[in-house]
UniProtKB/TrEMBL annotation, chain A:
Entry-linked CDD domains: IscU_like
Taxonomic lineage from the root: Bacteria, Bacillati, Bacillota, Bacilli, Bacillales
GO molecular function: iron ion binding; iron-sulfur cluster binding
GO biological process: iron-sulfur cluster assembly
Family: Belongs to the NifU family.
Protein name per its UniProtKB record: Nitrogen fixation NifU-like protein
Database matches in InterPro entries: NIF_FeS_clus_asmbl_NifU_N
Protein's organism: Anoxybacteroides voinovskiense
Domain called NIF system FeS cluster assembly NifU N-terminal: residue spans: 11-129
Pfam families xref list: NifU_N
UniProtKB/TrEMBL annotation, chain B:
Protein keywords: Lyase, Pyridoxal phosphate, Transferase
One of the GO BP terms on file: cysteine metabolic process
Gene3D superfamilies, per database record: Aspartate Aminotransferase, domain 1, Type I PLP-dependent aspartate aminotransferase-like (Major domain)
Pfam families from the UniProt entry: Aminotran_5
Catalytic activity: (sulfur carrier)-H + L-cysteine = (sulfur carrier)-SH + L-alanine
Cofactor dependence: pyridoxal 5'-phosphate
Name assigned to this protein: Cysteine desulfurase
GO molecular function, one term: cysteine desulfurase activity
Role description: Catalyzes the removal of elemental sulfur and selenium atoms from L-cysteine, L-cystine, L-selenocysteine, and L-selenocystine to produce L-alanine.
PROSITE patterns: AA_TRANSFER_CLASS_5
Limits of the Aminotransferase class V domain: 23-391
């Protein structure tokens, strides 16, 4: 349908797919990192569990409540960090943060689906939605370092 | 009243947002400001900015007269007996915290009860949680009816002779429910408790009469009623305020200061430590003049019409759930199918329509409603039926948009 184009840059098909069919949804039963994070101004909530072994994220799952942006971002984040080292995941988080703030970011790394969230930077009120799960991941990994 | 004419006095409303004429439906969060208020602030800063109650110079006298003149306007606005009962605060939150910290801490003991409701704003919950922890008192909640209203039978059953404080919002910022404060106050008094009223959502929209309500304390904010942010009011019955200790100590509120002991000014100044919110109070005075010229009854009637029109139009949208009772103040809280309220608000914003999305600082109520968040459209004297028509069209588009992207 014909709606404004700016909205289409936000609600990309990939985002809606992750929102409707979240990857890695659930709670790990053998996790060694567990983080709960809220966005107190809007009520979004992410519960992230990760299994970290020898500096590597072996597995990650999330549970939560929130809008399409926060939930799809959580889904994409878990997908992206699985198999990565702590350093790689934190670097990815830095790239994501730069992307959200509209700053130039390291494009040598293949971001896959995450690239679709780039449009969020044009909607300042929604940036916090997109970064919630990433902040949870950063907090969890910092506790492992 | 003619809302279209009133609207001309709010310069901010004459703008486009995202290429569409702005429809501002977030007045329950904060209202817009009319020219007379903006001009009063400008006049104060351009012509007589000065500190109050000290010094003997001309500007100081002018500022003091305007500041104390605003207090008299507030007194008349809520029909208090005396200006000694009108304390300027930063807003409703500060005012409620003052009652909890001063009256609450001094008068609550273990075994005493504080009674509030499930629909309260966080600012009428947390101060009581804190004072309950400090004093050993118990916090109790009046349950809600299925439609979100309060039944007096439930009030009767919750309030007991052990209850020392009952604190209830007059109008719900989520449900729009208008609570029977006068009757609740009567039940509170019969049990020996004081009645505290959170009037943040009622003072801007309806005529208040603290003597008729017979409440002991009443709090409201200027910024929701056309005044600037950072100014609010705590009304308290004189006899209660007299026996209460100040919450903040420092300049402006003292009578005599010794090395180890000090005494306080008389009411209301003993509660206004530090340089007061002079411009804010003057702006609030101007806002009261503005609202009274239009007439609070006219404003209430206009908003009632808008609320009923909105209910009618919004209920016709399939998949839209509305929360709260039918008899309500000028706001409608809703959810649209499975679309998260943030996503609804973003799409509406792209259409130039400002609504609130989230938990509205009422997490216990969200839990009671069994939702994590909702969207809310709230109306004020400058809104029109056309604004609601724009909302309805945009909501239908939102629905279509998300059925398309899903």
């Amino acid at each position: 349908m014909s709606f404004n184009n700016p909205l289409d840059t936000l609600y990309r098909q990939v985002i809606m797919d992750h929102y409707k069919n979240p990857r890695n949804r659930g709670v790990l039963d053998d996790e060694n990192v567990e983080i709960n994070m809220n966005n107190p101004t809007c009520g979004d909530r992410v519960h992230l569990t990760m299994k970290v072994e020898d500096g590597k994220i072996v597995d990650a799952k999330f549970e939560g409540e929130g809008c399409s942006i926060s939930m799809s971002s959580a889904s994409m984040m878990t997908q992206a960090i699985k198999g990565k080292t702590i350093e790689e995941a934190l670097m990815l988080s830095q790239i994501f943060s730069d992307m959200m703030r509209g700053k130039a970011y390291d494009d040598s790394v293949d971001l896959g689906d995450i690239e679709a969230l780039q449009g969020v930077s044009k909607f300042p009120a929604r940036i916090k939605c997109a970064t919630l799960a990433w902040k949870a991941m950063e907090k969890g990994l910092h506790s492992q370092q | 009243m003619n809302a279209k004419e009133v609207r001309q006095l709010f310069p901010i409303l004459a703008q486009e947002v995202n290429g569409k004429p702005l429809v501002y439906l977030d007045s329950a969060a904060t209202s817009q400001k009319p020219l007379p208020v903006i001009e009063a602030l400008e006049k104060y800063y351009r012509e007589y900015n000065s500190n109050v109650h000290r010094g003997v110079h001309t500007l100081g006298t002018k500022a003091t007269d305007a500041y104390e003149g605003a207090r008299e306007k507030v007194r008349k606005f809520i029909n208090a007996k005396s200006t000694q009962e009108i304390i300027f605060t930063r807003g409703t939150t500060t005012a409620l915290n003052m009652v909890a910290a001063s009256y609450g801490r001094a008068n609550l003991r273990e075994g005493d009860e504080i009674v509030i409701t499930y629909m309260e704003h966080h600012s009428n919950i947390i101060p009581w949680q804190q004072v309950a922890k400090q004093t050993g008192a118990t916090l109790k909640y009046i349950p809600l009816q299925a439609d979100g209203s309060i039944s007096l039978t439930d009030v009767e059953q919750t309030v007991t002779p052990n209850t020392k404080i009952v604190s209830v919002m007059q109008v719900s910022n989520v449900l729009g429910a208008i609570n029977p404060i006068k009757q609740i106050a009567e039940i509170a008094h019969r049990n020996g408790a004081v009645m505290v009223v959170d009037a943040a959502q009622s003072a801007p929209h309806m005529k208040l009469d603290v003597q008729n309500l017979d409440c002991d304390f009443l709090a409201f904010s200027g910024h929701k009623m056309c005044a600037p942010t950072g100014i609010g009011v705590l009304y308290g019955k004189r006899a209660l305020l007299e026996q209460m200790e100040p919450v903040e100590f420092g300049g402006e509120m003292i009578d005599f200061v010794g090395l180890y002991e000090s005494t306080w000014k008389e009411l209301p100044w003993k509660f206004e430590g530090g340089t007061p919110i002079i411009a804010g109070a003057i702006g609030l005075g101007a806002a009261i003049d503005f609202l009274e010229e239009i007439g609070l009854d006219n404003i209430a009637a206009h908003e009632h019409k808008l609320a009923q029109y909105a209910l009618e139009q919004l209920s016709a949208i399939e998949g839209l759930t509305i929360y709260g009772p039918k008899q309500r103040a000028g706001l409608v809280t809703f959810n649209l199918d499975d679309v998260h309220p943030h996503d609804v608000a973003t799409v509406l914003d792209a259409e130039g329509i400002a609504v609130r999305a989230g938990h509205h600082c009422a997490q216990p109520l969200m839990k009671w409603l069994n939702v994590t968040a909702t969207a809310r459209a709230s109306f004020y004297l400058y809104n029109t039926e056309e604004d609601i028509d724009r909302l309805v069209v945009a909501l239908k588009k939102t629905k279509e948009y998300f059925s398309h992207v899903f």
